[in-house]
Amino acid sequence: MMKKIQFLTAGESHGKGLLGIIEGIPAGLEMNENLIAEQLSRRQMGYGRGKRMKIEQDRAEIYCGVRHGQTLGSPIGLILPNKDWANWEQVMSSDQVDNPGKQITLPRPGHADLAGIQKFGFTDIRNVLERSSARETAMRVALSSICRKLLDTFDIHIASRVTRIYNITDSATNPLDMSLKTLNHHADQSPVRCLDSHAEQQMLQAIDLAIQAGDSVGGEIQILASGLPYGLGTYTHWDKKLHARIAEALMSVNAFKSIEFGPAVEYSKKHGSETHDEIGWDGKTYTRSTNHAGGIEGGMSNAQWLDIRVAMKPIPTLIKPLKSVDILTKESKSAHKERTDTCAVPAASIVAEGMLAFVLADALLEKFGGDSVDQLTQHIHATGKF
Ligand code: EPS
After folding, report:
1. Which residue among 111, 133, 231, 288 has the highest number of C-beta atoms inside a 10 angstrom radius?
2. What's the predicted TM-score (pTM) here?
3. How far apart are CA 303 and CA 190, in angstroms?
């Protein structure tokens, strides 16, 4: 449901690399490979990740669409090579080879494997898992860093933190007490991107126990955005509502299974009088006593902070696998084991920030328009209400 920006990613987890194209970014935006690398390195962090992140040092090359440090208004193309490709050249070759690698025939419960082979008629699960791997989210983060730079230009900031891993919740921190730049700075210092050091220790232990058991753990992430004007998105049509567009983008991230705007589940158990955010006037602008709505009313931004929460399921690739069936012999066997992450919740929070950046940049361009950053700036100054 993107209106002004479109983007595509391509590439397999162990192929030559990932490709990305983004179209619809105005001209005159400062952009360089370091800005992209900054976000990519944040995605590589996090306790509980597997060996792959030690092999890769993700750095995307700007292939086109940027000249002398500024976007041209034309499509921007990125290339992100996989270092691991060196170990997979035969198995992932686009040509016929003598040694194509062992066929994978044991679908992992919870992964794309079984439905994927049934859908495409494959007999080797590798044809599915190479693309369904979360490796692809590296390119999403790379492309979204361009949207993020656009938002930063207008003082719209995005941050996130991990609020739960397994059953360990950070209930001590109120992230609304700090600016979002400070929040991300603190979260990035933590190996689990958790703001509370006591909860952090318990989360690390929960991950260690899962590693020892050959298991995996999921969790919950809070994503926040500040500086939004009134009226991104609209109540006038179903596919233009901002929360619907954010939900679509976030639910496309591997392993994300639920989304809330503000503490929506908790407030669905209360009365309306306890739930909605009262309106005041401070002489200059409208004020809100609380932000239970999470910054969106009637499908539009209401100039409060966006407050979004997503739950991530535990990664389905297990070192101690669940039961499965061999797709060739139909024998009952343990599911396929592939190198994996025990916990990818911290890394996924960076992907979540990126997906939100796409939607917010898109909604900003939809509302204010402009072929260049200068034009967009003039339009926001002329009509934006905060
Ligand atoms: C990932 C790359 C993958 C996994 C992980 C995320 O690398 P590899 O498969 O070579 O170890 O570490 O993906 C999964 C666990 C999964 O099930 O998709 C990455 O770049 O984020």
Report:
1. 111
2. 0.98
3. 30
